[in-house]
Amino acid sequence: MIRFIIFYGWFSSFGISQVDIFNSFLRFLHQDGGVQMDIRYHQEQFGESYKVAGVFYFLEDDYYIYDSHDQRIVVNGDSITTINKQAKQIIYDLSIPGDVTIFDILTGDMTGIELEPAILEKSGYKIMFTVPDWELSGVLRLKPGLGHPTAVELNAGEGQEIRIRILSAEPLSERGVPDFDMTQFDVIDLRE
Fold this sequence. Notes:
This protein is of the alpha+beta class. The chain has helices at residues 2-29, 102-106, and strands at residues 35-45, 48-60, 63-68, 71-76, 79-84, 89-94, 114-115, 119-121, 124-131, 136-142, 149-155, 160-171, 186-189. Strands 1, 2, 3, 4, 5, 6, 7, 8, 9, 10, 11, 12 and 13 form a 13-stranded mixed beta sheet that branches. β2 and β3 (63-68) form a beta hairpin.
C-alpha cells in the first residue's frame, strides 16, 4: 500500500510538471507588450522546397504578425491581411473556421490539437502533438525552464513538412512592429 501511494504521488507530480512545461511556454508568450521571435521558415511539399527568414510578432491572443523581406501577414481574430511587398498588393481575407496553421501552434492556440506529455531531451523539452481533424502531427521544442520555443515542426504525410526554427525569442522592444509605406499598394478584398 505504501509503495502504491509513493508511486501515485510521483506520477501525480510528474503529470503536473508536464502541464507546467507547456504553461511556461504560454507565460513566455503572454508577456506584457508582446514577444518578438527571429525565425527561419522551411516548407517542403510535393518535391518543392521553400525557405525564408523573418520576424514573428506575438502581440496578444488572436493577433500576430509575420514579417519577411517579401511579405507581411497580419492575423487579427478571423481577419487575415497579406501584404506582398514585391508586387505592392494588400489582400484582405477571412480565416477558415477549424483551420490550423503552424503559426497557431507558435502562438499557443491549441484548439483542435492534442498534446502529449513533454519529454526532456538533452537540448530541452519536446512536446509532440496531433491535429486529428487534419491528420497532422508535429513537435514543439522548448528550452528547459524558461518556456522559450526553439522549434515547431508540422508533418502532413510523406514529403509534406513545415519547420520553424526560432533563432531568438525575447520581449517585444519599445520600437514595436516596424511600419512601411503602403499608400501605392493595390488592394484586393476577398472577404464576403
